[in-house]
Design a protein that fits this description.
single chain, alpha+beta, Cyclic Phosphodiesterase, Chain: A, 5-stranded antiparallel beta sheet, 4 helices, about 30% helix
């Protein structure tokens, strides 16, 4: 049975804590939003989707190739927003500044995954940390507006990229790290 996988840069625990605290103080309690648990906050570089067991062995070597020569680099978490624009929000996020090192790494990851036959993303890369998802048939417009108007700034160093599996669970997906590539120092 295939698992759902993605490639991500993890956020340090203290950054996740500060971000989660800020989201809770601004977003409040909104039954329309399923908030992402603090321990699951991350920056997705590439969503792979359903990956069968026979394709999984190709992912780790391709990821290692993509990360070869990449060094740790700083990232800034800046403010909040929602997707899609100009429509009822479906995803609430914290923005990540599109630093050149991040864009280069994401492009290398995208090309490496395309080489092992994962489809190229049809949308431009918009670095963000998903903090909440609007439940089907609900509106979280006011929460999205409050978040969009809130300020938040944090900085961390991207030190590794992880192959993550999203495992369905009754209370929401749980994530498991399946492979880690540490960026060279």
């Amino acid at each position: 049975m295939p698992g759902r996988f993605f490639l991500a840069i993890p956020l340090p625990a203290e950054v996740r804590r500060r971000l989660s605290t800020r989201v809770a103080s601004v977003g409040g309690v909104d039954e329309a939003v399923r908030w992402v648990p603090e321990e699951q906050l991350h920056l997705t570089l590439k969503f792979l989707g359903d990956v069968t067991d026979d394709r999984l062995p190709d992912v780790a070597p391709a990821l290692m190739d993509a990360c070869h020569g990449a060094k740790p680099f700083p990232l800034d978490v800046l403010g909040f927003g929602s997707f899609p624009p100009a429509r009822p929000p479906r995803v609430l996020w914290a923005g990540i500044e599109a630093a050149p090192s991040l864009e280069l790494l994401q492009d290398k990851v995208e090309r490496a995954m395309a080489a092992v036959e994962f489809p190229v993303e049809g949308q431009p890369f918009r670095p963000h940390v998903t903090v909440g998802r609007v439940k089907r048939g609900r509106s979280a417009g006011r929460t999205a507006e409050r978040l969009a108007g809130a300020e938040h700034h944090d900085t961390f160093v991207a030190e590794r990229v992880e192959l993550m599996e999203s495992i369905p669970h009754a209370t929401g997906a749980r994530y498991a790290v399946r492979h880690t590539v540490t960026l060279a120092t």
